[in-house]
Amino acid sequence: MNILDKIVARKAQEVAEAKAKKSIQQLENQIYFSRETYDLKTFLLDPTKTGIIAEFKRKSPSKGIINDFSTVEEVTTGYAKAGASALSVLTDIDFFMGCPDDVLAARAVNDIPVLRKEFIIDEYQIIEAKALGADIILLIAAILTPLQINQFAQLAKSLGLSTLLEVHDRQELERSLSPHLDVIGVNNRNLKDFSVTINTSLELAPLIPKDFLKISESAISDVGTINLLKEAGFNGFLIGENFMKTQNPGKAMRDFVDLM
To answer: Which residues are designated catalytic?
Structure first.
């Protein structure tokens, strides 16, 4: 069993536990559930923004603890001030040291889109994301069927949420496209062995239909890579570890943006 299989198996247990603690009706009664969401496409195409989806990430299965001292509030507001188009907040507990409350914390102090970065396997998690104040959900093609992707994206759209579909190869891309999706993200990190290569994005870019905006994820640590990806047609760039591994992630992003 690889790490992705382990995460998904644990996620099924987490979702069952969450359902037992809080009903869908209770989620729908939470204050953020009725708020008007921010549209990811609008912010990615905003010329006053950087196109960067900046990520708050404490730990990863491959690198261990990255940053366990910075707070969600200080990091995400620092990212927003540096020109982030959106924020990504990991909510997986066991493998990434995140929690759903991190989205609540980011939402309370920011006025740009927030992505709930999670391994979504159940519609409950999408409704929960809206209740937490998220604007975007992530669907990972590697762990979902085409039918699930279409249904989940349709539910997200009905709730006013944007959907980012994450793919790792041509097969995942071609079997997963749905008219309900907003943005296609190419993850340059292999989720089975955690190796990374920017070539994944460069190879898949021309295969992504023009109906979707394109985001490159992982393995982005210098401005030269950003320029290369822009030339390939990418509209956005998800960056987390490169900033989070520093003492001041917000400043690290500002310094990065100054070079763009």
So the answer is: 55, 57, 117, 166, 187, 217-218
Rg, the chain, Cα only: 17
The domain spanning residue 101 has which CATH number?
A: 3.20.20.70
Domain that holds residue 216: 3-258
The H-assigned helical ranges of the chain are 3-21, 24-28, 40-44, 72-81, 100-109, 123-132, 146-158, 170-176, 199-204, 223-231, 241-244, 249-258
Alpha-carbon distance of 28 to 215, in angstroms, equals 30
Closest-CA residue to 81 (of 61, 104, 111): 111
Tally of domains within the chain? 1
Q: Tens digits of per-residue pLDDT, 161-209?
A: 999 999 999 999 999 999 999 999 999 987 667 788 999 999 999 999 9
| The one-letter amino acid at 149 | I
Please say whether the beta carbons of 186 and 217 come within 8 A.
yes
Measured distance CA(185)–CA(248) in Å, rounded: 26
Lookup: tokens for 34: 């009725």
d(CA 159, CA 182): 14
What is the value of pTM for the model shown?
0.96
